[in-house]
Amino acid sequence: MAGETLTECTVGDVAAPSRNALVGGPFGSDLVSRDYVPTGVPVIRGANMGHGRWVDGEFVYVTPQKADSLSSNCAKPGDLVFTQRGTLGQVALVPKKGADRYLISQSQMKVTLDPTKADALFLYYVFISAEQQAYIAQNAITTGVPHTNLGILRNTPLTLPPLAEQKAIAAVLGALDDKIELNRRMNATLEAMARALFQSWFVDFDPVRAKLDGRPPAALDPATAALFPATFQDSPLGPIPHGWRTAHLEEIASVGSGKRPEGRLDLLCPECNIPLYGGGGRMGYVPSALYEKPILFTGRVGTLGLIFRTAEPSWPSDNTLIVEPQTGFFDFTYFVLQGFDLITLNRGSTQPLLTQTDLKRQSFVLPTKDVVKAFADFSEPIFRQIVSNERESRTLATLRDTLLPKLLSGELSVAECQQED
User: Can you count the helices (H) and strands (E) in the chain?
Assistant: First the structure.
């Protein structure tokens, strides 16, 4: 990009010339947890950021009437959403195929762009660049909890190429993200397949019920079907298949705590390529691993109820509980953990707390080892494919992150990039 084609401006300069084009969330008392309802207008919170280009994840909702009363704090498809407090530097787009409007929480800000001046997807890539992330960190307000504000966002400097070039750059980077998103959806489908079988075998006991009714278990070969009993027996958890028993988690897995990483966490450190996890998921990266092998973990302090699994070296922080299943029980334990209502085990007063003892003593139905092995024979190839897709996505993300600064700076043109492809 030749220098004369670039425009120096600010975020405020490219915001739409309309009211509430650049706004933050509502005042604290205007949106509280009792406003949430099962369905309605989705609320964008911190949990909905950090999923790639789009706001995503599990949403909470408010009624349309509540959203109407806070209309100035609503975002629409195509808007950019920024984290104001919490994990600074997060940015995401409101998807065009989602709801027709979203309410942003107190911890978010949004901007509606002037489409004649800036492309929203291009600006998303600008804001996830290392240079822009460094700017956000350097200009954060560090008094109390680190945060930013609308004034800082409005005055954030930008260097923009012509609109057509913005769109071309966004298309190149977006194509890589499209493949990453496809892999993510494939993995969600694959995991859902394994979860459905777990539900059928170990929660609903479908093969046993079929035998009890005199029917052959659906979709099972004769050898696998023969592993299941044909009757039930009583247990503390209700009727369970004959020959199975109730057990505590500690009988099939060890439970321990994660560890605080040594030194200062530097999210921009090139050699920091080991993911650091907290109870809410990935927090950043560290230079070495606490665990080289696959593990399961959940939140210990703060965020409770989410279950994660790793296939690569990782560092779970001290606000996690680590679950290490016995050989052959990894996938089975993963889904067992998802069946526990961990939020009800909270022992914290000022913030949520899950203890090792409480997690170890959670009860579940333990089948015979040959049934667990039959499940592993089905689930392990699925999760191997999931891991393969995740590795491909990381390679694509590395390529995207390598191209990003070169395209933004003009070191590499879109035409050159397309020739290399």
Answer: 12, 21
CA 287 to chain centre: 22
- Are β-strands 7-10 and 102-104 bridged in parallel, bridged antiparallel, or unpaired? unpaired
> Do 12 and 154 meet the contact criterion of CB atoms below 8 Å apart?
yes
Query: Can you give the pLDDT at residue 262?
Result: 76
**Could you read off the pLDDT of 143-180 as tens digits, one per residue?**
878 899 999 999 999 999 999 999 999 999 999 999 99
Nearest to 281 by CA among 82, 46, 55, 83: 46
pLDDT digits (tens, 9 = 90+) for 2-11: 445 889 999 9
CA dihedral sign of residues 358, 307, 82, 36: negative
User: Tell me, what's the pLDDT at 349?
Assistant: 83
On whether the CB atoms of residues 387 and 379 are closer than 8 A, the answer is no
Compute the average pLDDT of residues 266-290.
79
Gap between the Cα atoms of 378 and 383, Å rounded: 9
Residue 263 neighbours by CB under 8 Å, 6+ apart: none
pLDDT given for residue 264 in this prediction: 54
Domain borders along the chain are: 3-160, 187-372
Fold of the domain built from segment(s) 3-160? Adenine-n6-DNA-methyltransferase TaqI; Chain A, domain 2 (3.90.220)
CATH class of 187-372: alpha beta
